[in-house]
Amino acid sequence: MEKKLLQRFINGACSAEETIVIQQWLLEHPDGLETYMHELWREDIPAPMPAAMEAALRDTLPLQAPAPVKYIHWRRWSAAAAVLLFLLAGSWLLQHQQHPNHALSIITAPAGKIYQLTLPDKSTAWLKGGSRLQFSSTGYGKQSRTIQLLSGEVFFDVKEDVAHPFIVEQGVIQTRVLGTSFSVKAATAHTPSIITVATGKVAVHYADSTVGVLVAGKRISVDSTNGQYSSSDVPLWAAAPWKESAIQLTQAGFDEVQLAIKELYGVQLLTDNKQVQQEHYTLLIKRQTSAREVITVLSLLNHHLYQQKNDTTYIIH
Question: What is the pTM assigned to this prediction?
């Protein structure tokens, strides 16, 4: 962690994204703050401590005399500064006071970036940019491995542990597994929750009812307001295409090509040509390749022309 970034955080000058980075760093390096303060104490102090921090330290530390804050023992300075850091990090919680037996870890992926998280049981979670989840730092794995998905989309690769089921909760919607890999997209005010399985098997529940048991290549959409759901077959790569740099298609139908282009580029590919619709395609679609280049190749393979209708729609004739 850069010292300048930590100092900006102490001064309350970090951006929202920088604050998220520091929050997650502190979760992964619980001794990092103490190490930083120890190094800082050894350095010459070119300027006075920020007034707000000095005032907070004077209020926090049981000083016997109004000695300059510079001379407070570094361990006490470190402890007080740690308190300030937690107060400044308002978007995340280690709720020891409200929940003394179940401290919460809340993880937020920076916007536009994928964040990879190793959970306490060595399961792995990939958070799509802007996604948020939480779990009990002390209760995780004791009876179950429970995660609350607060928003966004996460792909999980779960370590098998029959005695401790892995559970993802989104309000009344619950996904329960033993060992598998799958993605969960949280519901919003206008869209359903979507669960897609890449390997293994999961059970999806709404309130007290089971709405589906999914195996690899299955997807279910569940309305969080009334429990209505629908299921469909999807390619295995469709569980989390947003975390991949490329998608390999092998003898794929046109509908799968459409889905891949939509997932990678946010572009809709249309055709009313039966030959194009009935063709099968084997190709590697790389994220770094533009949508226009991919569609040009598809058109050449079929000896047809394409038209760009607008920024997000292409048509092969």
Answer: 0.67
